[in-house]
Design brief:
With 999 residues, the chain is an all-alpha fold. Helices cover 63% and strands 1% of the residues. It is built from 44 helices and two strands. A two-stranded antiparallel sheet has the order 1-2. It is elongated, with a radius of gyration of 43 Å. The relative contact order is 0.05. The C terminus is likely disordered.
Length: 999
C-alpha cells in the first residue's frame, strides 16, 4: 500500500498543472490547436485515475480551456466526482467547473441533489459557502424545490457568512420556484433587522429585486426600510433602499411626505455621486406622486436641478450622461425649471461623446415652447452643418422634425417658416435616410394647413426644378414624390403652372413610384390648365398644352415600371382623344387623315372652343375634383371585415406550373429587341403577341438630347475632357507662374456667416416680441403694483401662479390654423388600445408577480394535516404554517416611525364597514334563497307523499327538512366568519399592508 502511494506521488511529479498548461499555450502560438489537442488527451488519462487530487488538477485545466471556448461537457461525471470530494481545495475546483459547465437544463443535475444537500449541512462553513456560490449558477426548478428547505435553514445559521449567502441564494430559488416565496418571506423579513450589516445588505438587495415586479407586497416593510435609511452609513444599501422607496411611493403617496426631508438632507450632505443620483430620482418620483397634495415643492425641484447641473458640468462623461437622463425625468412634470438651463443643454450638443449629444437632443424635445422654437431649430441647423458622421446628422434631422411636429404642430406659429426649414433640411442632407419622414411632413402641412397652401405649392415647384438626384442608397428623393403630388393636387395655387408642367415631363432617373406620381400629376396640371383655357375660351392654348403633353409622355411609355406605363398610356390616350376631337370639330370632317395630319390648324381670328371639346375637358377635370382629408394612422385596421369574406382564400384558381417549362420558354416583357415579338398561349387557349413599339427618328433624337441634358446636370457622371483653346494656354501646367496673383487688403478679419431663408422669420418674431414688450411697458408697471397689493392679500403662491400665467400669455399667437379632422371608418374611434405591448415572456421576474396578500386555497387542509403536508413538500409548507401560528400582529410602534398609520384612515375604515355590511347582506340573501328552495322541495315532497297516502312519513320528512335547513344556514354563516378569520390570519403574518382594503 505504501509502495503504491509512493509510486502515485512519483508519477504526479511529471503531471502538468494549470500553470504549465497556460505557459505551454503561450509558447505554442503557431500550433496552438495541436498543443491543446495533446493536452486534452493527457487530461482524459488523468481523469481515469483513482486519485482525487489528479482529477481535481485535470478539472482545473478543463476549466481554463472552457474559458478559452472549448467544450468540456463530456467531463460532467468527472466534475461531479471532484465536487463530492471531502477536501475543500478539490471541492472548490469542482464547484467552479460546475458553475461554468452546468446550466439549469443539464441532465446530470439530478445526480447532485443529495450531494449538495450534504454539503449545505456541513459543519465547515466554507464548504457550505462554496456550495451556495456554485449552486447559484446552475440551480434548476427541481433543485430549487428540493433544496429550498435546506437553504432556508441556513438563513437562521449562527454564522453571518452563511446567513448572507443563504439570503442571496434564496433570490435564485424564487426565480426558479416562485412557490417558495410565501413560506420564506417571514424569515427574509427578519434578516432586515439582522445584527450583521452584511446580512442586512443582502436582505435589502433581495427585496429590492423582488419589488421590481410587484412592489405592493413589500409596502408593509416601509417602517423597517425608513429606519435603515436614517441610521445606515452604507452607501450601497442606501441606494437600494432609496430605489425601493421610489417604487413604493406611487402606491402610497402619503409615504412621500415623510421621505422628502431625509432625502433632501442626503442630497445636501452626501459626496457620493451614485447616491446623489438615486436620491434625485426618488425625489422626482415622490414629487410626481404627491404633486396634488403638496403644492410647495418648488424648492426641492430647484435643489435637484441645481445638483443635476453640477453633474452635467462634470468632466466625467458617465456623470454627465446620468445628469441629462435625470433632467429628462424632471422635464416631464416641471418643464419650466429645466428650460432655464437651455444654454447648458445646447452646449452638450458639442460634446465629443455621441450618446451625450443624443441625450441632449431628447431633452430639447421637451424644452420647446412657442417662444423658443425658432431659436432652438436655428441652433440645431447650425450644429447640423458642423456635425460629423452621417448617423448623427440623420438623428439631428429627425429630431428637428420631431420637435416641430409634436402635438399636431402645437408650437409652430408660422408654417411658412416650417416649410422653409424642411426645404433647408433637404438641401443640407441630400443623402439622408429620413427622406420619407420629410415627404410625409410636406404632405401633411400642405393638406392640413390651408392658409399656407399657396406658399407650399410654389416652394415645391421650385424644389422640383432645383433638386439634384443624389446617390442611389439615399431616400431623400422621396421628397420629389411629395412635391410632385402637391403641385398636381393643388395646381390652382401655382404662379406658373405651365413651367411646372414642363418640369414634370422632363425625364429623370428616379424610382418608378415617383415617375408614376410625375405622370399622374402632370395629367392633373393639364386638366387645370385646359379648364382655365375653357373659361378664357382660348383654343390655341388648349392645343399647345395637348402637344406639350403628347411630346413628354412617350418617355414614360417606354419605362420599365408597369405602373408608370399604365398611367402614361392612360394619360396619352386621353390627350390623344381630346386632340382628335379638337381636330375633327375644327376641320369639319372626322376622317382619320385629318385627325393624324392636322397638327397645326391656322384659323383667322380667335377661334372658340367647340362644345364637344369643352364637354370632354370638363369630364377630364371632374376626375381630379375634390378635397382630400388626412387619414387616421390606424384607420385601415379599424375597418370591419364583411361577413363571409376570407382574405386568405384564392380569388381565382391558382395556375398550375408545369415542370417541363425551361428557362428559355419563360417570357420577359422587356427582354426582346426592337421589332422582335414573342407569342404566349394563355389558359383559355388565346394566343397573345407582344411587340415593342418602334420609335421614329425624331423621337430618338429627342430622347438623345434629353439624355445628354441629364448627363450634363448629373454631378456623379464623368464628363469627357474638353479640348483647350490656344487663347487659354496660360492654364497649362507649364504656365502656372504666369497666372497673376492679386493681394486682398482686409482691414477687418474676414467672417463668413451662413444665412438661411428661415432666419428672416426668427428676426421678424424677435422684432414683434420687442415691440409688444415696449408697448406693454406701462401695463407691466401697473400689473406689478397690482401684484404687490394682491400678494399682501393672497400670499406668495398665488403671486407665483399669476406670474406664470402672465409669462404664458407672452407666447406668440399662431398665424395659421391646423386642420385636425381625420378620416375614419364608420363607427370607429381613434384610440391606442390595440397597440399595448404584450407582456415580455422572456422576463425572468415575470414569475415573481405573486400577491402575497391573496389567500392560499389549501391553507385549511394544510392546517388539518400539516405533518403529512410538510413531509411531502420537504418541510417548506410546514414551516410556513408554524411561522403563521407563532407570528403576532405587527405592533403600532413600528408603524409610528413614518406615520404609516395614516393609511388606516377613517374613510377607509368606513369603507371596510360598508363592505362587511354588504357581504353580510349578500350572505343573508343567499340564505333566504336557499330557504325558499328548501320550502319548494318540501312542498313537492308533501304533495308526493300525500298522493301516496303517507301522512305520517310526511311529517317526519318535514322535521328532517327543517333540521337540514338549520345545518345549511350554520354552514353558510361559518363561511363568512372564515373570511374574517382569513383576513386576520394574513395581518398576523405581517404580509398584508395596513392601507389595503380587506375583502
Amino acid at each position: 500500500m505504501a509502495l503504491k502511494k509512493v509510486k502515485g506521488n512519483f508519477e504526479r511529479m511529471f503531471d502538468k498543472n494549470l500553470t504549465d498548461l497556460v505557459r505551454g499555450i503561450r509558447n505554442n502560438k503557431d500550433n496552438e490547436a495541436k498543443y491543446i489537442a495533446q493536452c486534452m488527451e493527457e487530461i482524459k488519462q488523468e481523469l481515469r485515475q483513482d486519485n482525487v487530487n489528479v482529477k481535481a488538477n485535470a478539472v482545473a485545466k478543463l476549466t481554463y480551456l472552457q474559458m478559452c471556448g472549448y467544450d468540456i461537457s463530456w467531463a460532467g461525471f468527472n466534475i461531479i466526482e471532484v465536487m463530492s470530494s471531502n477536501r475543500f481545495t478539490c471541492k472548490r475546483i469542482g464547484y467552479l467547473a460546475a458553475s461554468q459547465c452546468f446550466h439549469p437544463d443539464s441532465e446530470l443535475l439530478m445526480l447532485t441533489t443529495n450531494m449538495v444537500r450534504k454539503d449545505l449541512s456541513s459543519t465547515n462553513q466554507y464548504d457550505a459557502g462554496v456550495t451556495l456560490s456554485g449552486l447559484s449558477c446552475f440551480i434548476s426548478t427541481d433543485l430549487s424545490r428540493d433544496l429550498a428547505n435546506d437553504i432556508m435553514t441556513l438563513m437562521s445559521s449562527t454564522r453571518p457568512y452563511l446567513r448572507m449567502k443563504a439570503v442571496l441564494m434564496m433570490y435564485k430559488v424564487f426565480l426558479r420556484y416562485p412557490e417558495a416565496l410565501r413560506p420564506a418571506f417571514p424569515k427574509l423579513k427578519e434578516k432586515l433587522e439582522d445584527p450583521d450589516p452584511g446580512v442586512q445588505s443582502a436582505a435589502v438587495n433581495v427585496i429590492c429585486e423582488l419589488a421590481r415586479k410587484n412592489p405592493k407586497n413589500y409596502l408593509s416593510l416601509a417602517p423597517i426600510f425608513f429606519k435603515l435609511m436614517t441610521t445606515s452609513t452604507n452607501n450601497w444599501m442606501l441606494i437600494k433602499i432609496i430605489k425601493l422607496f421610489g417604487a413604493l411611493t406611487p402606491l402610497e403617496p402619503r409615504l412621500g411626505k415623510k421621505l422628502i426631508e431625509p432625502l433632501t438632507n442626503l442630497i445636501h450632505s452626501t459626496s457620493a455621486m451614485s447616491l446623489l443620483y438615486e436620491c434625485i430620482n426618488t425625489v422626482i418620483a415622490v414629487l410626481i406622486s404627491i404633486s396634488s397634495g403638496m403644492p410647495n415643492h418648488s424648492a426641492s425641484i430647484q435643489l435637484c436641478v441645481q445638483k443635476l447641473r453640477i453633474l452635467i458640468e462634470d468632466s466625467d462623461q458617465n456623470l454627465k450622461y446620468l445628469g441629462l437622463l435625470a433632467m429628462s425625468k424632471i422635464l416631464k412634470t416641471h418643464p419650466k425649471s429645466v428650460q432655464t438651463h437651455k444654454d447648458l443643454i445646447l452646449a452638450c450638443l458639442d460634446d465629443k461623446d455621441e450618446s451625450i449629444r443624443l441625450r441632449a437632443l431628447d431633452l430639447l424635445y421637451g424644452m420647446v415652447s412657442k417662444k423658443n422654437l425658432m431659436e432652438i431649430v436655428r441652433r440645431l441647423l447650425g450644429h447640423m452643418e458642423r456635425a460629423e458622421g452621417s448617423a448623427y446628422r440623420d438623428e439631428l434631422l429627425f429630431k428637428v422634425i420631431e420637435i416641430c411636429s409634436q402635438g399636431s404642430y402645437q408650437y409652430v406659429t408660422n408654417f411658412e417658416w416650417y416649410l422653409t426649414v424642411l426645404v433647408e433640411l433637404i438641401q443640407l442632407e441630400s443623402g439622408s435616410k429620413h427622406g420619407k419622414v420629410i415627404a410625409t411632413q410636406l404632405l401633411d402641412v400642405a393638406i392640413r394647413v390651408q392658409a399656407v397652401r399657396t406658399f407650399a405649392v410654389n416652394e415645391m415647384s421650385t424644389l422640383l426644378a432645383s433638386y439634384p438626384i443624389a446617390a442611389q442608397n439615399s431616400t431623400m428623393h422621396e421628397v420629389l414624390y411629395a412635391a410632385a403630388w402637391i403641385v398636381g393636387e393643388f395646381g390652382s395655387c401655382l404662379d406658373n403652372p405651365e413651367q411646372t408642367l414642363n418640369i414634370l415631363l422632363q425625364p429623370r432617373q428616379v424610382p418608378g413610384h415617383i415617375q408614376a406620381v410625375y405622370v399622374q400629376n402632370a395629367t392633373k396640371l393639364f386638366a387645370n390648365l385646359a379648364h382655365d383655357c375653357l373659361e378664357e375660351d382660348n383654343l390655341a392654348d388648349v392645343r399647345k398644352y395637348c402637344d406639350q403633353l403628347l411630346d413628354g409622355l412617350p418617355v414614360y411609355l417606354s419605362s420599365g415600371d408597369i405602373e408608370v406605363q399604365e398611367r402614361a398610356s392612360s394619360a396619352f390616350m386621353t390627350v390623344q382623344m381630346l386632340k382628335a376631337r379638337l381636330a375633327a370639330t375644327t376641320t369639319g370632317d372626322g376622317t382619320a387623315a385629318d385627325i393624324l395630319d392636322d397638327v397645326d390648324v391656322v384659323v383667322l381670328g380667335k377661334p372658340s372652343i367647340p362644345p364637344e371639346v369643352a364637354a370632354l375637358i370638363r369630364e377630364i377635370r371632374e376626375l381630379f375634383v375634390g378635397d382630400l382629408n388626412p387619414v387616421a394612422p390606424k384607420a385601415q385596421r379599424k375597418v370591419q371585415l364583411p361577413e363571409g369574406l376570407d382574405l386568405d382564400e384564392w380569388i381565382n384558381t391558382p395556375p398550375q406550373v408545369s415542370s417541363e417549362s425551361s428557362d428559355e420558354e419563360k417570357f420577359s416583357l422587356f427582354g426582346h429587341g426592337v421589332g422582335e415579338d414573342r407569342g404566349e398561349t394563355t389558359n383559355g387557349g388565346e394566343h397573345r403577341r407582344y411587340r415593342q413599339v418602334e420609335q421614329t427618328p425624331e423621337e430618338m433624337e429627342r430622347l438623345r438630347e434629353a439624355r445628354i441634358l441629364e448627363q450634363t446636370n448629373n454631378p456623379n457622371y464623368l464628363k469627357p475632357a474638353k479640348k483647350k483653346s490656344s487663347s487659354q494656354d496660360y492654364q497649362n501646367a507649364e504656365n502656372y507662374d504666369e497666372i497673376p496673383i492679386a493681394e486682398i487688403a482686409l482691414e477687418v478679419p474676414l467672417q463668413i456667416h451662413s444665412t438661411k431663408r428661415s432666419d428672416k422669420y426668427l428676426v421678424a418674431q424677435q422684432k414683434s416680441s420687442s415691440s409688444s414688450k415696449a408697448a406693454g411697458g406701462a401695463h407691466s408697471k401697473k400689473a406689478s403694483k397690482k401684484s404687490k397689493r394682491h400678494s399682501k392679500k393672497s400670499g406668495s403662491s398665488k403671486q407665483q401662479r399669476y406670474s406664470e400665467s402672465d409669462s404664458d400669455s407672452d407666447d406668440p399667437k399662431p398665424l395659421h390654423v391646423v386642420n385636425t379632422v381625420v378620416e375614419l371608418p364608420e363607427g370607429a374611434i381613434l384610440s391606442d388600445t390595440e397597440d399595448k405591448n404584450a407582456e415580455d415572456l422572456d422576463d425572468p421576474h415575470r414569475a415573481l408577480d405573486i400577491d402575497l396578500d391573496a389567500p392560499i386555497e389549501d391553507h385549511r387542509p394544510a392546517q388539518r394535516n400539516s405533518s403529512s403536508k410538510a413531509s411531502r413538500t420537504g418541510g417548506l409548507l410546514g414551516e410556513h404554517l408554524s411561522a403563521k401560528a407563532a407570528s403576532a400582529p405587527p405592533t403600532s410602534n413600528d408603524i409610528v416611525a413614518i406615520d404609516a398609520e395614516e393609511a388606516g384612515s377613517k374613510s377607509q375604515r368606513h369603507r371596510h364597514k360598508k363592505d362587511r355590511k354588504k357581504s353580510k347582506k349578500e350572505d343573508k340573501k343567499q340564505d333566504l334563497l336557499e330557504v325558499e328552495q328548501e320550502d319548494k322541495k318540501k312542498r313537492r315532497k308533501k304533495t308526493k307523499l300525500a298522493g301516496e297516502g303517507g301522512e305520517a312519513s310526511n311529517g317526519g320528512g318535514e322535521a328532517e327538512a327543517r333540521q337540514k335547513q338549520k345545518k345549511n344556514k350554520k354552514e353558510k354563516l361559518s363561511k363568512s366568519e372564515q373570511k374574517k378569520l382569513m383576513s386576520g390570519y394574513e395581518e398576523a403574518l405581517g404580509i398584508s399592508t395596513p392601507s389595503k382594503e380587506v375583502i
